[in-house]
Amino acid sequence: MTAFALDGPADRLKAALPRTGGLLRSAADSVPPSGLVLLAIFSVQLGAGFAKELFTALPPSAVVFLRIAASALILGAVSRPKLRGWPGATGPSGSASASSSPS
In Å, what is the CA distance from 78 to each residue of 40, 68, 89, 99? Predict the structure, then answer.
């Protein structure tokens, strides 16, 4: 028996999932799917509007690179995973660093 009450099958599924990115997940849960679709459409159109102005100054491949790089930076800032506790993450002692010499 769990310590919290479950209302239905969807709540059982939510309880079984890991709780990563709690603030972002709760913000996304509060916006209906149609709102998320409209936000995605707005984002694509805004990016295309900025890119339209860049085509006069840069070649198309550079504009595509800038759009992908900007979206990667925004996505990384919004949904950055926590590195603490991962096997490759090192603590302040730096036990697994690139500058350590083999003994």
Answer: 15, 15, 20, 31
Neighbouring residues of 97: CB distance < 8 A, sequence distance ≥ 6: 90
Q: Rounded to the nearest 5 degrees, what angle is found at the Cα of 72, between the Cα atoms of 26 and 43?
A: 65
Distance, first Cα to last Cα, the chain: 52
Cα dist from 4 to 23, 37, 38, 48, whole Å: 20, 33, 35, 47
- Residues with Cβ within 8 Å of 19's Cβ and at least 6 positions away in sequence, in order, are 25
Tokens of residue 12, six digits: 């059982």
User: Looking at the predicted structure, is the pLDDT value of residue 59 above 80?
Assistant: yes
**Confidence category of residue 19, pLDDT binned at 50, 70, 90:** low
Between CA 103 and CA 101 the distance in angstroms is: 6
pTM over 0.70, yes/no: no
What is the helix, strand, coil percentage profile of the chain, to 5?
55, 0, 45
